[in-house]
Known about the structure:
This protein is an alpha+beta fold. It is 44% helix and 20% strand. The chain folds into two domains: 5-175, Jelly Rolls (Sandwich); 177-283, Orthogonal Bundle (Arc Repressor Mutant, subunit A). It has helices at 94-97, 108-120, 137-148, 152-170, 182-193, 201-208, 212-223, 227-245, 250-256, 262-273, 277-283; strands at 10-21, 34-47, 52-56, 59-63, 70-72, 76-86, 98-99, 103-105, 174-175. It is globular.
Amino acid sequence: MQIPVEALNLLMLNVGYAKHNGDWNWKNVYSPFTRIFCVTEGRAWLHLSESTIELKSGHLYIIPAYTMHNYECNEWFEHYYLHVYEAFKSETNMFEFYDFPTEVEATEVDRLLCQMMCQLHPEAQLPDSDPTAYDNQTSFSGYVRRYNDMPLYDKMRLRGATLTLFSRFLEHATPKLWTTNERMQKVLQYISAHLYNDIDIDSLAQVACVTKPYLIRLFKQDFGISPLKYINKKKVERAQLLLITEDMPVKDIAYTLGFNDYSYFIRMFKKTTGKTPQVYRDTMR
């Protein structure tokens, strides 16, 4: 399944160049945006749930949104960083369609693109390397507003550079097995298009033209979880974004996302994130 480039609504939040000397050690970093690093000197380590990756000079690294990770740095380390997220109107998430490599070898063009973005937008550098200093509601909203206020030519330039860096990983990515299944393609597209509605499994079965039990079996086979858990996961991710980018009351966010039972939304959100929606919002302020 091919993703149309015009559907990739990537929005730049931050870009900059960082120098560290054993002071880049942060745990339990979890954000609603994707990170790309271009390492130019030294080394550090990225700890993911199932692996540890050495961050080496001359390489690019990508960390998808909503990926829990830790940083470890015991020596000199320099790198470019780029933070982007897929805006609300985008119905396509590249990480749903492909298994991306975390690391690829960087080219001189990659480095120059990062350098160009830094030179054109010095205001987009992070205030501090500590994620709590920038990964919060006030900062996030400000970064989104700053991008939206940019002239069109600036957005086009940033979008082109960002897509080029993403393409470096996509070049080595492999399509997920489910992408060859037209039924699951239709189901996933239906979920994306109706994320703000109450999605029931019977409707998904009708979209796939199969029985409800067979749909559940196919879905678990391709995605590893039930359709309901997948839908709730996507709704929670969207709720996290809304909680840090909008001033809507938590109850309104629940109803906006198609939850008729507010208590169920609270329980489900806490089960997924470990926090209630209000505590999550307060933490991100």
